TrEMBL record:
Residues 188-208 are annotated as: Disordered. InterPro entries: Clp_N_dom_sf, Clp_R_N, CLPT1/2. This is Clp R domain-containing protein. Keywords: Repeat. Residues 199-208 have a biased composition (Pro residues). Residues 1-118 form the Clp R domain.
Length: 208
């Protein structure tokens, strides 16, 4: 699943801040799909049990969480996802926006306006907390640090997914669900990796 699928989800969600900002440029779902198809030849991923995110799409999701933190928000919605997409200046989504004539800086301004104008109930009290940076600890191995990061992001992805479903924001819910699957796959890969000396480092305390 690439950045183009995230973009199509945002355009489809016309009521969310991300969709509102994109619609203000006159961008429609048929136009967006046509632009994607002109670039990659297809607009939808093949139906399989799990479609992993591309590294660029995963980076967009991580950036959307950082954007939420910078805005002092306690939730992640389609507006933050759009900010994450706009920050990724390369990739299919960026090429689509360029081809349809959307200026990225102006799109960011409109996204911020749409986020600010969103009703208060668009951010449920139990929405995903903004990411908390993990302080480096010299006594923790690299594997433990990675496991801790995955645990924190899994909690954020699950909470954001549940909050988005409660708010009817299905574009964000779908993106968070796929990110959750990607993190679970990464955790399984980490657990299966051989450890130095044949021993598994002690796990970190779970995030509170």
């Amino acid at each position: 699943m690439g950045t183009e699928h995230l973009l199509l989800g945002l355009v489809h969600d016309e009521a969310g801040p991300g969709g509102v900002a994109l619609a203000s440029f006159g961008l429609t779902l048929p136009d967006a799909r046509a632009a994607v198809q002109a670039i990659v030849g297809v607009t939808e991923p093949a139906p399989v049990a799990h479609i992993p995110f591309t590294p660029r799409a995963k980076h967009v999701l991580e950036t959307s969480l950082r954007e939420s933190l910078l805005l002092s928000h306690a939730h992640v919605d389609s507006g933050h996802l759009l900010l994450g997409l706009l920050a990724e200046r390369s990739g299919v989504a960026a090429e689509v926006l360029y081809r349809v004539g959307i200026d990225l800086e102006e799109a960011r301004r409109r996204a911020l306006d749409a986020i600010a104008a969103a009703p208060a109930d668009a951010a449920p009290a139990d929405a995903a907390p903004a990411p908390t940076p993990i302080a480096p600890r010299s006594v923790v191995t690299q594997a433990n640090a990675r496991a801790h990061r995955i645990a924190v992001q899994l909690d954020q992805a699950k909470t954001a997914k549940d909050a988005a479903l409660d708010a009817g924001d299905f574009a964000t819910a779908t993106a968070m669900r796929e990110w959750e699957k990607s993190l679970l796959a990464e955790r399984a890969q980490l657990a299966a990796a051989p450890k130095p000396g044949g021993r598994t480092p002690p796990p970190l305390d779970p995030p509170q």
